Amino acid sequence: MVPEINWWAVVVATVSTMVVGSIWYAPKVFGSRWERLAKIESPANASVAIGVTLLVSLLTSWVLAGASAIAWYFYGGSFFTNAVVTAVILWAGLTAARFITHDAFENRPWRLTLMNVAHELVTFLVIAVIIGAFGIDSPAA
User: Fold this and answer.
1) Domain assignment present for 140
2) Based on the structure, what is the number of domains in the chain?
3) Is residue 2 part of a domain?
């Protein structure tokens, strides 16, 4: 079974990740602290980083949309709720778990790990809210 995916939701969710990241890592929010904890000495090539971020965000939004549709087909109930619960489960079991593991081996400061996994949780939740609000492209929905 190929899950029904609302591509408009995926596009809007992809853009939302850029908005969340721009706010989260703004110097007056967490940006300056993140640079200090991550020991960023010189700015990265912004155009390459933005391009990579857009591609990865598109992939993340698409996967979350598909996983949400599968969860909804399996569990029934509210598509919105399934999208949010699926996002939290995928964030905890995949994203946060991998960040914590890599950061432990790289001996990164726990505050940096916390800041990054919290950013990912907010990003996943915003993606889920958008996907859940749009629903799926299907006559059965």
Assistant:
1) no
2) 1
3) no
- The answer to whether position 97 is within a domain reads yes
Which two three-digit tokens encode residue 29? 């929010």
Token readout for 97 is 């778990």
The string of pLDDT tens digits covering residues 91-124 is: 999 999 999 999 999 999 999 999 999 999 999 9
116-138 burial, b if ≥16 CB within 10 A, otherwise e? bbebbbbbbbbbbbbbbebbbee
Tokens of 105: 């081996």
What's the CA gap between 85 and 128, in Å, rounded?
9
25: containing domain: 7-134
Lookup: tokens for 44: 């990265």
